[in-house]
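B., you asked whether I could sanity-check this one before it goes into the benchmark set. Here's the sequence:
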Amino acid sequence: MNKTFAVFGLGRFGKKMALSLYEMGADVMVVDRSAELLEKISNQVTYAIEADLKDAEDIKGLGLENTDVVVVAMGSDLTSSIMSVMVSKEVGVPYVVAKASDERMGAILQKVGADKIIYPEEETAARTARKLMSDNFLEFFDIDDNLCLLEMYPKKEWVGKNLIELNLRASYGVNVVAIKNNNEMRSYIDPKKALKEDDQLLVIAEKDDLKKLGRK
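And here's what the prediction gave me:
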């Protein structure tokens, strides 16, 4: 069964979140007070519903009882965000993620029940900084507070050597979990096969070890 999500607020962040979740196969309900914004996205999500997210009765009328995750995406509207978080938890939504514009807002939303607070600008800046740290870094994904999933090209000194020779776990604290080449991702990795310059490595690393990977 597909996971079900509700995304409240169709600003840039909320819209991108809803579209990405739907593209990955989730059932997605989007909620906003703007009929115009809802009309533009209605054929790209499961449900598009107009509601006043400052109104508890409107939120209760959405039928969130069987929703797995609610994403509250109105980072600049504290009143709507507070009401959305509180009512979502009251009706039994197991996991509520809330966007906050600053730490004060984040603390308030956590106080009223949000399970996770996200600061999109800070997180985007952090991801960009990590990618800029090395020309080898392609993409970066948080797993938890200390672990990350990193997509990267082999460092120059790795090319032509195999994983046994490199012993990356001992040298850099990373585990290579897949290799992508010619647009094909392979989870089985031959540890005796030499790495090529255009191989894309998918590695799990502790964030504290990223400094080692970023060094020239």
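One thing to flag: The chain has a mean pLDDT of 87. Otherwise nothing jumped out at me.
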